[in-house]
Design a protein that fits this description.
The structure holds 2 protein chains of 2 kinds.
Chain A: H1 2-9, H2 17-30, H3 36-67
Helix pairs in contact in A: 2-3
Chain B: E1 2-6, E2 12-16, H1 20-29, H2 33-38, H3 41-61, E3 77-78, E4 81-82, H4 85-89, H5 98-107, H6 143-150, H7 152-177, H8 183-188, H9 190-194
Antiparallel strand pairs in B: 1-2, 3-4
Classes of the chains: A mainly alpha, B mainly alpha.
């Protein structure tokens, strides 16, 4: 439980990830499409995927932390 | 050279890549400049804002009034301070090149310009009688001092500027060869491609 509390306390640092997620999503999507509508749509999907992946990794590490 | 991109299922547009080598060089020099040269203005603006914005924010995070700005972007291959992140940061092109100028000046015993902007830190590391890191090399802060005073922002600034440089490599490839298409998209568009003659060196992409 302590690790969860620490994670919540340190959550403000995650704000630094937001600009990176937006930028990476947009630039990656722009290398796959030529038109802005398609780029934005693809960027949104990539952004959601990145956040989901980060959440999954967080969950796995949290579970491991409970047992170790 | 042109790249062919289907606008919908029944038609396609051609993207004029002009001179891909020159476009790639311009894209490296300034993010988005290669696309501007090709007339792909929207993507030029997107790359310029996203990549240079990320790089600039990293430079801002990695400095302050006391230490000087841009401390996270510096070129150094000295024993004890081999700055590998600079290899990634160099991908952003012209904005990272002042670090090479500053490193060259320091190597030849000259004082860094612009208050040490992107200058390599001092290699000192010894402490004075007050317990403070000793400054040398024209008053430049040491690596220890940078970490001590910038805290996590030194690493954050480094990461931001590195990612900006790596993202620009994707943009350079886009300027050189047009949009990349994935395996899935390639399979979908395979049948259409067989029925059409593609221009030499063109790339097709299903939208």
């Amino acid at each position: 439980m302590d690790t969860l509390v620490l994670a919540v306390l340190g959550i403000e640092d995650l704000w630094f990830a937001v600009p990176l997620i937006i930028t990476v999503s947009l630039v990656y999507a722009a290398t796959r499409h030529e038109f802005m509508g398609e780029i934005l749509g693809h960027a949104l999907r990539i952004g959601v995927w990145i956040v989901g992946f980060m959440a999954a990794v967080f969950a796995v590490l949290q579970v491991i932390a409970w047992f170790v | 050279m042109v790249a062919t991109v289907p606008a919908d299922t029944s038609s396609a547009i051609e993207i004029p890549l002009k001179d891909p080598g020159l476009a790639a060089f311009l894209a490296w020099l300034v993010p988005g400049l290669g696309h501007l040269y090709q007339g792909r203005t929207a993507k030029a603006v997107l790359y310029f804002v996203c990549i240079l914005g990320t790089f600039s924010y990293g430079v801002y995070l990695g400095g302050n009034r006391e230490l000087g700005w841009g401390r996270v972007v510096y070129a150094s291959w000295r024993p004890g301070d081999r700055r590998l992140p600079y290899l990634c940061q160099l991908g952003v092109g012209l904005p990272a090149l002042p670090a090479l100028v500053q490193a060259n000046r320091v190597r030849h015993g000259k004082e860094p310009l612009f208050g040490g902007f992107m200058a390599p830190p001092a290699l000192g590391g010894n402490f004075d009688q007050f317990g403070e890191p000793r400054r040398d090399d024209f008053g430049q802060p040491t690596v220890h001092e940078l970490h001590k005073k910038l805290h996590r922002y030194f690493e954050l600034g480094t990461v931001y500027t590195m990612i900006a440089g790596l993202l620009n490599i994707l943009a350079i490839y886009d300027a050189w060869g047009g949009p990349v298409f994935s395996d899935e998209e390639e399979e979908d568009g395979e049948n259409e491609d067989k029925s059409e003659d593609k221009p030499e060196g063109s790339a097709s992409l299903k939208s």
